[in-house]
């Protein structure tokens, strides 16, 4: 059974470049495996986050719907009350409450701001002398521009 050296099966000899090549192949496979593993982890995390986001969205939508229902209920209650009261005359308290509101409205044609009380009463504003002159200058300029706009057409 002794085999002569010639009869022994020949083993491949690795060259130095191929051994480093196989090492680099191992490293490549190892990196690829790690990359896939990391990718799966990230995918799993993303899936969890998406689920969490969907749950949050559902909660927010549910809360918004509940609030909308409450608002609609309140609105319908108020409409019922106003429908009953709409034919009745205004009480003194309601009229005073409405008239106590003062708002500043811009008159677009002249560029002036006017104080409007309640349903439309125009009231004067008390200002200093300097502010009064400034308002008059601005108003005169606005009046002139308004007047000139008719000739430009």
From TrEMBL:
Keyword field contains Nucleus: yes
Organism: Cotesia congregata (Parasitoid wasp)
Main location: nucleus
Region (Disordered) residue spans: 1-96
Top-rank taxon: Eukaryota
Cellular component per GO, a single term: nucleolus
Pfam family, one: SR-25
Membrane spanning stretches: none
Protein name in UniProt: ADP-ribosylation factor-like protein 6-interacting protein 4
InterPro entries, A to Z: Nucl_RNA-splicing_assoc_SR-25
Statement: the UniProt record of this protein carries the keyword Nucleus: yes
Keywords of this entry: mRNA processing, mRNA splicing, Nucleus
Biased amino acid composition, Basic residues: 28-55
Cellular compartments annotated: Nucleus speckle; Nucleus, Nucleolus
Membership in a protein family: Belongs to the ARL6IP4 family.
GO biological process: mRNA processing; RNA splicing
Basic and acidic residues bias locations: 56-65, 72-84
